[in-house]
Amino acid sequence: MLQLATGLLTTVLAVLAAIGLAAVTHRRARGRRLGALIAPPLAAWHSALAIGLAFLLAPSGWLVRLVSPALTGWELPRDVSTSGHPSRWALIVGLCVRRR
To answer: Are 61 and 55 in contact (CB under 8 A)?
Structure first.
């Protein structure tokens, strides 16, 4: 229960802070400068995370290479796509890794 309350309160406070910052800087030169300043680091972080997860979770990724062929018996990577997988497990892992 404590984790749920902490997660919800943190989310609410983050949303309120973001809305407050947007309200203060909306249609002002300061807001445009701030947006231009923070856009590249935000994009770089998300791109790096996506590329790292692709290397880790891909059918020929590092996790599979650690256990193959000794534990799996695979000589070649499996023919599956993890990015559009119906069970969405790759998306779930990605979201869990992102939230620290």
So the answer is: yes
- Name residue 27's amino acid: R
Angstrom distance (rounded) from CA 76 to CA 68: 9
Structure tokens at 37: 């300043």
Band (13; pLDDT cuts 50, 70, 90): very high
What is the largest distance, in Å, between two alpha-carbon atoms of the chain?
A: 61
Split at pLDDT 50, 70, 90, the class of 16 is very high
CA 44 to chain centre: 12
Q: How far apart are CA 34 and CA 82, in angstroms?
A: 36
